[in-house]
């Protein structure tokens, strides 16, 4: 049913030349089927659709080829049957001229449909099912920017839609697509209105049509009369005055209802939903015929085409094919516009496709659309404000946009501008106002995005600071727990030490008593007592059992404390548990001996070689085990603290000194035990005979074990110090590959020197003679060694100090850079820069000293060797020149080299080949990441690896032979 309603006027508006009769004289025609269709995935507002097919797939007409990606998105369907031949980025019809992912479909001309989903009885279908059906069929707005229809029809719970407005105004000049649709296919529109009415449940529907299309008005009224059961609500066809831009959504709502959409609001806030007539017809075809949005009516007009009119065009059709069908005269073509002359945009190519929002292609001649006049200064006439349908102040917005004062432009409601172009049309100065407004909108959106990114970055920064604070608190808690555990262990150690001292005092008294008892026993023996049944020393057995029990319990407590503090690895725990098991077994054996002696069993007899008791092997063994456990525990604690970075340099040195003391104590205890086992320790009353002493003196010279121990400790300290310095320099990235190789060779030499000193010390402890066959010659040969070694050591130490100074300078530079990036105060930055200057100056001084020492060492090595007395066959060759310029193969095959020297040289050769192999591996990895050719590098890496394997095998064999 149709009746007249009251109409309202809108502010402003203009009356440009309509130019509609050129394309409205002929009925709607079918456009040609092109050979290829170009289908951009971005044809609507919101997220682009997501592809569901791939290159080479054959598709049918109406088949979904891209899914909606998100709430505000729309699906895409194949306009005809064919094959997907490419998916690539191509230019799309958009004012920006940007590219988007585009599917290229090669048509087969068969027009084979896929299986279609049809809803015949929509009146008894759930509205949510209808909305989902519309979404799946890719329906978008066909009169504006292409907003997904299903989203626009989804109302909130608090929205009470009472009016449905159908936009048939089509106020833009030249365009007649909606006019022909209403005139020839009014039934589709009315059925579509019924479907939307079933979804929204409005009280009435108003179709707004400009009064220059009265034939369309009559056609719609006739269709309403012929569908009395389709429309269970009031439907009114209103002929509104012809005025541009009465077809704008907000303007049409104001004309038909007298209500204005509030700033920042939408029509649904007023209980109104507005849809274009083309969109309503597409909904009808999707529901009743299962036909997705694969074509649309497009107006082709302008004086550069001879056959103007409206065409049912497949989505994706190239404009060149459509213009060819309309007999385009390329010589007369001056401007090609998509859309109308007021809100359309110019195209630079005819290779662009028709998309879902393409309602008009305007091919204009130069006489029809001359070049715009040169823009002049604004004369403040106010005509733009009079023409603006949104009642804005275009003049002020222009000044703000031109000056980039985006905040002020936004405050003057810039986003209420519909970009209709009425202000530019009436401007006597020919200022392109709409272009300035679009520029300002883009700037505001960019600033908002920047603020959003800044806020997100701030949140991430705060979260990171909170996480770091939490980690620091946890680290502090762990440090405190370790300190508490260490204090507890120290207290227990002090308590145990006090108990041990008390026990030792008691044992001293017991030793005196035992000595007296032994003297009494010897006296009895001299008087003819029975030597086969000596008395049992219960007191000594008791002391032995008590010491074994104390050692066992102390080790058990130490292990428990270490477990609670979490200081040990599983391997270390297993090792200590094994040691505890041994101590427990020793305690049980000593207790069994004491119990047997108490019950009258046989006790061990005194040694036959002496009437005085021998050394207490069990006590020495316990003392050695305790010293070893203390050393290992201190060493592990030091390593854990280093890894956690909890110690300063002074603390580290102090703990290293403590560990060295514990190591010395352990070595002394082990030596005492070894001497007792080998019978070297002196016993009370044992005095070697003069002849024996003389024989020993003649057989071998006296060995200074203490001097050898000092030499071994110094060699070990030098080796460990060099190894730590090399590791530090590697972590700081301060050394080149050649410097790393050289320092690794130096470390290998120091390690060999330490192993040689250690072996000499062990031989001395075991009573093995180590004196050279010709002392005089050796003394002469090695008399110059201290000076060379001292100079070489000075150079190495200075090299390490220079590396450390360089690392400190890098740290200072990093601190300055971070302070500048964080925007710290100038005073703080100045202080950091002063620190940097001092660090650089210190590095330069140390580096200069290093270079001087390096040159001295080089000159000393290049100088001719001092002539030494001729060595006999038993003498060793000069170690410094034995391996000069020799390959690993030459070292292996050299039979005249001493085994120790040979092992040392092979060790250096293995380090050098390993460094060369690792360097080539790094170069190969860098080349692979850069995508370069790597075949030659791979061959070099394989060869270097083979050389390293050979050198390593030779080194291992030499070391095994040396140990054997």
Automatic annotation (TrEMBL):
Q: Where in the numbering of this chain does the 4Fe-4S ferredoxin-type domain appear?
A: 370-398, 408-437
Localized where?
A: Cell inner membrane
**Which residue intervals make up region (Disordered)?**
470-511, 584-659, 672-701, 763-786, 862-899
For the biological process aspect of GO, one term held by this record is: electron transport chain
Q: Which family does it belong to?
A: Belongs to the 4Fe4S bacterial-type ferredoxin family. RnfC subfamily.
The UniProt record lists the keyword Cell inner membrane: yes
Q: Please list the residue ranges that the record marks as compositionally biased, kind Polar residues.
A: 687-700, 768-785, 869-885
Required co-factors:
[4Fe-4S] cluster
The protein's assembly and partners: The complex is composed of six subunits: RnfA, RnfB, RnfC, RnfD, RnfE and RnfG.
Tell me which SUPFAM superfamilies the record gives. Answer: alpha-helical ferredoxin (SSF46548), Nqo1 FMN-binding domain-like (SSF142019)
Enzyme nomenclature, EC number: 7.-.-.-
Which PANTHER family does the record associate with it?
ION-TRANSLOCATING OXIDOREDUCTASE COMPLEX SUBUNIT C
This chain's protein is named: Ion-translocating oxidoreductase complex subunit C
Q: Give the record's cofactor note, including how many are bound.
A: Binds 2 [4Fe-4S] clusters per subunit.
Q: Check the record and name the HAMAP family matching this protein.
A: RsxC_RnfC
Q: Give the matching NCBIfam families.
A: PRK05035.1, rnfC
GO MF annotations in UniProt = 4 iron, 4 sulfur cluster binding; electron transfer activity; metal ion binding
Topology in the lipid bilayer is annotated as:
Peripheral membrane protein
GO terms for CC?
A: plasma membrane
Q: What class of enzyme is it?
A: translocase
Organism (species): Litoribrevibacter albus
Role description: Part of a membrane-bound complex that couples electron transfer with translocation of ions across the membrane.
| Extent of Basic and acidic residues compositional bias | 470-495, 584-596, 639-659
Gene name, please? rnfC
Alphabetically ordered keywords of this record: 4Fe-4S, Cell inner membrane, Cell membrane, Coiled coil, Electron transport, Iron, Iron-sulfur, Membrane, Metal-binding, Repeat, Translocase, Transport
Asked whether the keyword Repeat is assigned, the reply is yes
């Amino acid at each position: 049913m149709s009746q007249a309603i009251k109409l309202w006027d809108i502010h402003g508006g203009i009356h440009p030349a309509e130019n509609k009769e050129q394309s409205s004289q002929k009925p709607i025609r079918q456009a040609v089927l092109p050979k290829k269709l170009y289908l951009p995935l971005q044809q609507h507002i919101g997220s682009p659709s997501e592809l569901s097919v791939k290159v080479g797939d054959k598709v049918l007409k109406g088949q979904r080829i891209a899914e909606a990606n998100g709430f505000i998105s729309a699906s895409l369907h194949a306009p005809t049957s064919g094959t997907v031949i490419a998916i690539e980025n191509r230019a799309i019809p958009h004012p920006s001229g940007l590219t988007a992912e585009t599917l290229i479909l090669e048509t087969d001309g068969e027009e084979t449909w896929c299986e279609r989903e049809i809803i015949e009885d929509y009146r008894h279908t759930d509205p949510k099912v209808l909305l989902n059906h519309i979404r799946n069929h890719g329906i978008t707005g066909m009169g504006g920017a292409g907003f997904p229809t299903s989203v626009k029809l989804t109302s909130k719970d608090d929205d009470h839609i009472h009016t449905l407005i159908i936009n048939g105004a089509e106020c833009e000049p030249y365009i007649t697509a909606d006019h022909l649709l209403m005139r020839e296919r009014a039934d589709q529109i009315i059925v579509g209105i019924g479907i939307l009415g079933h979804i929204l449940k409005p009280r009435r529907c108003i179709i707004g049509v400009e009064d220059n299309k009265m034939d369309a008005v009559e056609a719609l009224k006739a269709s309403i009369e012929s569908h009395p059961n389709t429309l269970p609500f009031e439907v009114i066809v209103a002929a509104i005055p012809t005025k541009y831009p009465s077809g704008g959504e907000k303007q049409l709502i104001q004309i038909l209802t007298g209500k204005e959409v509030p700033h920042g609001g939408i029509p649904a806030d007023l209980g109104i939903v507005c849809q274009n007539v083309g969109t309503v017809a597409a909904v009808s075809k999707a529901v009743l015929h299962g036909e997705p949005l694969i074509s649309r009516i497009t107006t082709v007009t302008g004086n550069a085409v001879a056959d103007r009119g409206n065409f049912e065009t497949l989505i994706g059709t190239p404009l060149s094919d459509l213009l060819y069908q309309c007999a385009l005269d390329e010589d007369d073509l001056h401007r090609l516009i998509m859309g109308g002359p007021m809100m359309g945009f110019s195209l630079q190519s005819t290779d662009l496709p028709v998309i879902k929002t393409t309602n008009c292609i305007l091919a204009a001649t130069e006489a029809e659309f001359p070049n715009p006049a040169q823009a002049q200064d604004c004369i403040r006439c106010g005509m733009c404000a009079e023409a603006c349908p949104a009642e804005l102040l275009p003049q002020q917005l222009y000044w703000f946009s031109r000056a980039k004062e985006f905040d002020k432009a936004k405050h003057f409601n810039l986003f209420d501008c519909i970009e209709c172009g009425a202000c530019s049309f009436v401007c006597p100065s020919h200022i392109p106002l709409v272009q300035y407004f679009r520029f300002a909108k883009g700037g505001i959106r960019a600033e908002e995005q920047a603020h959003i990114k800044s806020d997100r970055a701030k949140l991430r920064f705060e979260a990171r600071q909170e996480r770091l604070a939490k980690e620091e608190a946890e680290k502090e808690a762990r440090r405190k727990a370790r300190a508490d555990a260490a204090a507890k262990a120290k207290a227990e150690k002090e308590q145990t030490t006090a108990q041990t001292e008390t026990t030792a005092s008691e044992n001293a008294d017991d030793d005196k008593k035992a000595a007296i008892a032994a003297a009494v026993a010897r006296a009895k023996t001299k008087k003819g007592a029975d030597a086969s049944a000596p008395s049992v020393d219960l007191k000594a057995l008791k002391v032995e059992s008590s010491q074994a029990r104390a050692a066992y319990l102390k080790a058990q407590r130490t292990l428990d404390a270490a477990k609670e503090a979490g200081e040990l690895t599983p391997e270390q725990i297993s090792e200590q548990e094994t040691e505890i098991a041994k101590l427990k077994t020793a305690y049980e054996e000593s207790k069994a001996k004491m119990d047997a002696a108490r019950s009258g069993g046989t006790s061990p007899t005194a040694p036959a070689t002496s009437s005085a008791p021998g050394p207490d092997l069990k006590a020495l063994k316990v003392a050695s085990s305790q010293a070893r456990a203390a050393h290992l525990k201190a060493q592990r604690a030091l390593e854990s603290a280093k890894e956690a970075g909890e110690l300063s340099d002074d603390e580290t040195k102090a703990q290293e000194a403590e560990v060295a003391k514990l190591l010395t104590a352990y070595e002394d205890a082990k030596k005492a035990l070894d001497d007792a086992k080998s019978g070297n320790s002196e016993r009370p009353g044992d005095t070697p005979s003069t002849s024996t002493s003389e024989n020993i003196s003649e057989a071998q010279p006296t060995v200074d074990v203490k001097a050898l121990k000092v030499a071994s400790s110094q060699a070990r300290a030098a080796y460990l110090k060099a190894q730590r310095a090399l590791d530090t320099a590697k972590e700081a990235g301060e050394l080149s590959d050649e410097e790393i190789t050289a320092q690794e060779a130096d470390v290998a030499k120091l390690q060999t020197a330490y192993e040689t000193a250690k072996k000499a010390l062990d031989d001395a402890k075991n009573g093995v003679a180590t004196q050279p066959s010709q002392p005089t010659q050796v003394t002469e040969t090695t008399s110059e060694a201290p000076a060379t070694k001292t100079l070489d050591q000075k150079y190495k130490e200075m090299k390490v100090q220079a590396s450390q100074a360089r690392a400190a300078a890098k740290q200072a530079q990093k601190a300055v850079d971070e302070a500048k990036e964080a925007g710290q105060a100038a005073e703080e930055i100045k202080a950091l820069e002063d620190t940097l200057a001092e660090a650089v100056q210190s590095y330069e001084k140390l580096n200069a000293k290093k270079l001087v020492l390096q040159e001295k060492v080089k000159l000393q090595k290049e100088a001719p060797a001092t002539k030494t007395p001729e060595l006999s066959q038993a003498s060793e060759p000069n170690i410094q020149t034995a391996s000069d310029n020799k390959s690993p193969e030459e070292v292996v095959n050299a039979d005249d080299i001493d085994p120790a020297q040979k092992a040392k040289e092979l060790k250096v050769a293995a380090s050098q080949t390993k460094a060369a192999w690792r360097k080539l591996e790094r170069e190969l990895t860098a080349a692979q990441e850069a995508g370069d050719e790597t075949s030659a590098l791979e061959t070099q890496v394989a060869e270097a690896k083979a050389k390293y394997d050979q050198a390593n095998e030779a080194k291992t064999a030499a070391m095994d032979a040396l140990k054997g």
